[in-house]
Amino acid sequence: MADGISSFWGPVTSTIECCEENYAYSSYIAEFYNTISNVPGILLALIGLVNALRQRFEKRFSILHISNMILAIGSMLYHATLQHVQQQSDETPMVWEILLYMYILYSPDWHYRSTMPTFLFLYGAAFAVVHAFLRFGIGFKVHYVILCLLCIPRMYKYYIHTEDIAAKRIAKWYVATILVGSVCWFCDRVFCKTISQWPVNPQGHALWHVFMSFNSYCANTFLMFCRAQQRGWNPKVIYFLGVLPYVKIEKPKAQ
After folding, report:
1. CATH number for the domain including 227?
2. Residue 157 has what DSSP assignment?
3. Is the pLDDT confidence value at 75 over 70?
4. Does 39 map to a domain?
5. Is Transmembrane helix one of the keywords UniProt gives this record (predicted)?
6. What three-state secondary structure class fits 16?
7. How far apart are CA 136 and CA 138, in angstroms?
8. How many domains does the chain have?
9. Does residue 5 form part of some domain?
10. How far from each other are the two terminal CA atoms of the chain, in whole angstroms?
11. Is the pTM of this model over 0.90?
């Protein structure tokens, strides 16, 4: 904790602290950079949500963008307070979000349409209840990684069956952002003692948030493109201000 600044939220009760000095800038924000670095995630999810609603994409994508925003807000609460309850508001939405990705990825070829959403909903609800009473620690990370790995085969299948160069480029940015972000997260966790002695802390965990904000946006945009192709909506990748990609569709008049 920085000298002369007291903690508004009281003692730390979360199971994880990142490599950032607590309450260095305000008594109301425990980890300043790790808190504000979630803002890009909220803004990008909002842009994606507006595009999904404006072009009347399936509701699943609106829910997906909203889940991104909920996760970013939960992460802000967690890093601002470093309290166990707020930590759950970060970790539980992470699991809910990846379950939603699994539904979007696998549902098009699922023959029994009601079974998958029912199972995923019950799984997410059960996890939330158990997670509210138990502290998983490393178990949470292992569980989350396993869920992420289950999505990879389907994402790869979508990639190899997509011929559009611009869409493939978005998929490549998805891979690049998660790799670079993971390196930032790893260095922040493993080399904290060394980094703390540097004149300037690079704020690896905050960079992880920024890269994962773009990672989620790229994932959502790529999946929207693939789903539009499946529905015959003639999707095209357009760049907002020449930088930020989004999907533009042309639905048949009957739809």
Report:
1. 1.20.1070.10
2. H
3. yes
4. yes
5. yes
6. coil
7. 6
8. 1
9. no
10. 58
11. yes
Distance from C-alpha of 191 to C-alpha of 3, rounded to nearest angstrom? 24
Place of tokens 């939330």: 128
**Is 79 assigned to a binding site?**
yes
Rounded distance between C-alpha atoms, residue 227 and residue 247, angstroms: 11
Dist. CA 101–CA 220, nearest whole Å: 9
Residue 27 domain-assigned? no
| 154 three-state secondary structure | helix
Residue 31 marked as a ligand binder: yes
Q: Compute the average pLDDT of residues 199-210.
A: 96
DSSP 75-137: HHHHHHH--HHHHHHHHHHHHHHHHHHHHHHHGGG-SSTTHHHHHHHHHHHHHHHHHHH---T
Distance CA 134, CA 136 (A): 6
Tokens of 29: 């924000």
The answer on whether 20 is annotated among ligand-binding residues is: yes
The one-character DSSP state at 203 is -
The pLDDT mean for the chain works out to: 92
* Alpha-carbon separation of residue 249 from 31, 44, 48, 168, 225 (angstroms): 41, 19, 14, 17, 9
Residue 163 annotated as binding site: no
DSSP alpha helix (H) spans, the chain? 32-36, 39-54, 59-81, 84-106, 115-133, 138-160, 165-190, 192-195, 204-230
CA 222 to chain centre: 14
Residues 179-188: tens digit of each pLDDT: 999 999 999 9
> In 218-251, which positions are buried (b, 16+ CB within 10 angstroms) versus exposed (e)?
bbbbbbbbbbbbebebebebeeeeeeebbbebee
Domain that holds residue 54: 32-250
